Amino acid sequence: RQLRGAIEECKRLILELPEHSERQKDAVVRLIHLRLKLQELQDPSEDEPNLRVVLEHRFYKEKSKSVKQTCDKCSTIIWGLIQTWYTCTGGHGGTGTPGAAPPAPPSSRPPSPGCYYRCHSKCLPLVTKACVRSKVSHQAEYELNICPESGLDSQDYRCAECRAPISLRGVPGEARQCDYTGLYYCSSCHWNDLAVIPARAIHNWDFEPRKV
């Protein structure tokens, strides 16, 4: 409570001091330090585990404090200086819950790379998108049918990944089709990335990248 009071007092002082004066600059620096201290108390990064496993993502805590990234879950900036964040950088396969200890890695199998999904620590429990790299590693064969669509109604007008309501009219959410699987996704799960589709390359000698 005292810390919040000091922050409010510092904000008031900044507004009262002459603009661009040295005293105002000093007050801004003090405000930054107070906010950092408050953030540390609210979200102590030292208590966060180095590895958290969610939907086959193997999230490792990042050490960088200077690089600004965008959270793939909430789409807001990750401020490395004051926020704890994780990246799915892979490792040996396995499932678990956030904060779970990793299973013992088999020595005969090399670690697999991750999908590089980035997000705030606070967003990890909200992740609904499974690790793409892990999903691909489980599927030994390519889909050789061209865009095997079964219709949005077969998905109950919901995203194939997170089950959010979607429609072709964009209300309540835009339906985006993956040209590889034929399934429909919401804009949070389908990012309009482009890739060459194996089935089109084999059947039609078509190497034009499509949305996946």
From TrEMBL:
<dbReference type="InterPro" id="IPR002219">
    <property type="entry name" value="PKC_DAG/PE"/>
</dbReference>
<dbReference type="InterPro" id="IPR051366">
    <property type="entry name" value="DEF8"/>
</dbReference>
<feature type="domain" description="Phorbol-ester/DAG-type">
    <location>
        <begin position="56"/>
        <end position="131"/>
    </location>
</feature>
<keyword id="KW-0863">Zinc-finger</keyword>
<keyword id="KW-0479">Metal-binding</keyword>
<dbReference type="InterPro" id="IPR025258">
    <property type="entry name" value="RH_dom"/>
</dbReference>
<comment type="function">
    <text>Positively regulates lysosome peripheral distribution and ruffled border formation in osteoclasts. Involved in bone resorption.</text>
</comment>
<comment type="similarity">
    <text>Belongs to the DEF8 family.</text>
</comment>
<protein>
    <submittedName>
        <fullName>DEFI8 protein</fullName>
    </submittedName>
</protein>
<dbReference type="InterPro" id="IPR047983">
    <property type="entry name" value="DEF8_C1"/>
</dbReference>
<dbReference type="GO" id="GO:0008270">
    <property type="term" value="F:zinc ion binding"/>
</dbReference>
<dbReference type="InterPro" id="IPR046349">
    <property type="entry name" value="C1-like_sf"/>
</dbReference>
<keyword id="KW-0862">Zinc</keyword>
<dbReference type="Pfam" id="PF13901">
    <property type="entry name" value="RH_dom"/>
</dbReference>
<keyword id="KW-0677">Repeat</keyword>
